[in-house]
């Protein structure tokens, strides 16, 4: 029987949004559960974990860009340590 080891990284497709303001840039990384909506005067970003709604007003924005990429992060491995169970000694009767 062959046992296949799990991958050392988890790959997740994310969307990066960069917003340029006068003198600063704000960058957000959106995961699969997150969303954004570009309406007439606003760019509204909804982040699910932790839940947050961020609203950017378009008149204040100089530019914005959106791109998708694959984010790779290492798998957290669980370390299992076996601890010996202490023996109980019964006193003589």
Rg of Cα set: 25 Å
How much beta, percentage-wise? Answer: over 45%
CATH topology of one domain: SH3 type barrels
Strand adjacency order, main sheet:
2-1-6
List segments where confidence is low: pLDDT < 50 over at least 5 consecutive residues.
none
Describe this structure in words.
Helices cover 0% and strands 52% of the residues. It has 93 residues and is mainly beta. It has a domain of 62 residues: Roll (SH3 type barrels).
Quick recap of the structure?
By secondary structure, this protein is mainly beta. It has a domain at 13-74: SH3 type barrels (Roll).
What keyword list fits this structure?
single chain, 93 residues, mainly beta, SH3 type barrels, 3-stranded antiparallel beta sheet
Fold blueprint:
Layout: E1 9-21, E2 24-30, E3 35-38, E4 42-47, E5 52-57, E6 63-74
Antiparallel strand pairs: 1-2, 1-6, 3-4, 4-5
């Amino acid at each position: 029987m062959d046992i296949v080891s799990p991958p050392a990284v988890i790959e997740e497709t994310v969307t990066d949004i960069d917003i340029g303001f006068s003198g600063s840039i704000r960058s957000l990384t959106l995961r699969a559960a997150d969303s954004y909506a570009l309406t007439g005067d606003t760019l509204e970003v909804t982040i699910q974990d932790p839940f947050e709604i961020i609203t950017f007003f378009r008149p204040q924005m100089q530019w914005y860009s959106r791109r998708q990429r694959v984010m790779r992060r290492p798998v957290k491995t669980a370390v299992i340590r076996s601890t010996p169970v202490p023996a109980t000694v019964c006193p003589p009767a």
